[in-house]
Every structure is written in structure tokens, then in C-alpha cells.
Amino acid sequence: MALKTMDDLFLEEIKDLYDAEKQLVKALPKMAKAASSQELRAGFQEHLEQTKGHVQRLERIFSLLDKKPSAKKCEAMRGLVEEGEEIIDEIDASPLRDAALIGAAQKVEHYEIASYGTCRTFAQMNGHSDAARLLEQTLEEEKETDQRLTEIAEGMVNEEAIEMGSSGGGAGE
């Protein structure tokens, strides 16, 4: 489809976000299961429920636009999810894996923050104030999740990962 208007662009971005969120609904349970830290596991599970709500909000936006919900494959999210899967495959369950999972999750959050901010602005510019309000709500939740991940990392996970690496018995010894 050739994009000719800001409304066309807005709809394409919503379709992209819809696919991204649906990919996360599938990926977050795997990340939660792979987390060693109970706090991180709980954070991933909480964000899964929140993400299901994000999907529902996007479906409401499609409805506000009189469009049927449809997804456009989000290649960026696919790549970010693959990075998370590689971490799970390549690092044994440990604080080190948790630190890497937090990093991967924050990359996802930053992508979503950029995407929701852009879509909110497009909605405002196109006069879709109800859609803009819903997008703003999700944007704020994504920022809160990013902050929560930082708190988990700085609160214990990163320190435990460093201690793990300096406890001796590692490679070369």
C-alpha cells in the first residue's frame, strides 16, 4: 500500500505496533521462565498482563478509526525478540543471564517508547484525540516498565552478576 497521507502513515504505524505487542505476548512468558531473580520474573509476568492490555488498547484504536485490527510484520521487534532468545540459549541461568535479559528488555521498551511517542503525535496531528489519549496511556506504562527494569538491575542483579564473575574458578584459572 502506498502511503499518501499522515492518516495512512498513522494507520501503518498502529499496525506495526499491533504486531510488535502480539510478538511480546508470546516472548514475555519465555523471558519470565528464563529469569533467575524472582523479582525479575514477577516483573516480566506483570508486564505480560500489561502488554495484553496494550493489544486491547490498539484494538480500540482500530475501532475508533473504523478499521479492522490488522498487523504489519514488525521486523524491528522480531530482531529484538531474537536477541532475547539468544541470551536464553547462550547464557546459563544466573544473575549474568538476568542482567542480559534486562538489557534486552530495555531495548524493547526503548523501541516501544519511541514508537508510541511517534504514534501519539501522529494521532494528535490527525485530530484523533481519543486515540492519542490511549497511546499516551501506553507510552507512560512503557516508561514505567523501563524505569522498573533499571531499578531491578541497579538494585541487585548487576551487582550479583559482577560478584559471580569475580568469585574465582572462572576461565583461565
List strands and helices in order, with pairings.
Elements: H1 6-34, H2 38-64, H3 75-90, H4 95-125, H5 129-165
Helix pairs in contact: 1-2, 1-3, 1-4, 2-5, 3-4, 4-5
List descriptors:
mainly alpha, Ferritin, disordered C terminus, 173 residues
Question: Can you offer a commentary on this structure?
Answer:
- This protein starts with 5 loop residues before the first helix and ends in an 8-residue tail after the last helix.
- The chain is 81% helix and 0% strand.
- α1 packs antiparallel against α4 and α3 (75-90) packs antiparallel against α4 (95-125).
- With 173 residues, the protein is an all-alpha fold.
- It has helices spanning 6-34, 38-64, 75-90, 95-125, 129-165.
- It has a single domain (6-161), classed as Ferritin (Up-down Bundle).
- The chain is elongated.
- Mean pLDDT is 94; it is low at 168-173.
Short description:
This protein has 173 residues and is an all-alpha fold. The chain is built from 5 helices and no strands. The radius of gyration is 18 Å and the shape is elongated.
CATH class: Mainly Alpha
Spell out the helices and strands N to C: HHHHH
Count the DSSP helices: 5
Q: List how many beta strands DSSP finds.
A: 0
Shape assignment: elongated
Query: Mean of the pLDDT scores?
Result: 94
What's the CATH H-level superfamily name? Answer: Ferritin, core subunit, four-helix bundle
Going by CATH, the architecture would be Up-down Bundle
Tally of domains? 1
Strand content: under 5%
Distance from first to last alpha carbon: 59 Å
| CATH third-tier fold name | Ferritin
Unreliable segments of 5+ consecutive residues: 168-173
**Radius of gyration (Å):** 18 Å
Helix content: over 70%
Please summarize the sheet with the most strands. Answer: none
Structural class: mainly alpha
